[in-house]
Amino acid sequence: xxxxxxLEASRVALWVSESFWGYPLMISMHAxxxxxxxxxxxxxxxxxxxxxxxxxxxxxxxxxxxxxxGLAINLISGVSLFSSQAxxxxxxxxxxIKIPAILAAVTLAGVIQHKxxxxxxxxxxxxxxxxxxxxxxxxxxxLWLMAIVSGRLTxxx
Amino acid sequence: xxxxxDWMESSTLGQWVVATEWVWPAAEIVHFLGxxxxxxxxxxxxxRLLGLFRTIQYGATHPLLRWALLGFGLxxxxxxxxxxxxxxxxxxxxxxxxxxVLIMLAGLNAALFYWKIQPRxxxxxxxxxxxxxxxxLALLSLLSWFSILLLGRLIPYVGxx
Lengths: 157, 161
Hints:
The complex is a heterodimer of chains A (157) and B (161). By secondary structure, chain A is mainly α. Chain A has helices spanning 3-8, 11-18, 22-48, 60-84, 86-89, 93-117, 131-153. In chain A, 75% of the residues lie in helices and 0% in strands. The mean pLDDT of chain A is 93. Chain B has 161 residues and is mainly alpha-helical. Helix content of chain B is 74%, strand content 0%. Chain B contains seven helices and no strands. In chain B, helix 3 (23-49) runs antiparallel to helix 4 (64-85). Chain B is elongated and about 55 Å long. The model of chain B has no long low-confidence stretch (mean pLDDT 93). The interface between A and B is medium-sized, with 35 and 34 residues.
């Protein structure tokens, strides 16, 4: 029995795949977490790219913390959803694109938050945002788009 | 109601959605992107009104509403595609019915906020809480948008008819 077969036979996996509420509950949590995680980070990145510049850059680290809350919801729901069909997902092409995209996007958000905290990006309100941060913000938005597109397509492959 | 459903099914749009394989998944992708924009911006706007993120001046979240509106627009368009593609299923679905009512409520709430409250918002200092009525509307807004998301996601699993 390999790791994925073992996961599928686990108690969590069986609860998700066999109980009446397991799957709907987890899939709903996953949508809510997505809205918090991707929604907040898309807004943070749009701000870094110059949208709604009245929002102080000092507030962005706190907003990224809210995204971590969404990430926690989606780690829990995502792992349980994955385990319920681990052997299927692990051979699903969109899923294999989605996970690295999310890992990269989450890492980028961590790096951006760290830089914001270090005051590397701003010294005064209104000072332009470093081009390296803007490049990361643009890449991050692309990665979230990739994650949303491939995430939805897991159901079709 | 059956006449409306028949009309939607036989309409050019309805026929196109059913006959074109890629339309449904494409609309789903747009719907998820739209909900991220809508809920992401509403989270920041409403949580600010509820007392979080105090470094943000009240008026500064205003331009976020444009992104919320963009998200809402994307979801209205993709939502119409779903409705025309399978009108009978949605009409009979409890989750969809409650969701539709909540969207109207949330829309009214947003309009009230936009026209009545937003013009006065810059008058409040960032370190004081907004009036109780405003905080209640913000909470109502968040609760309704997240319930709309929840109900939408549960449409395939809740009772039909």
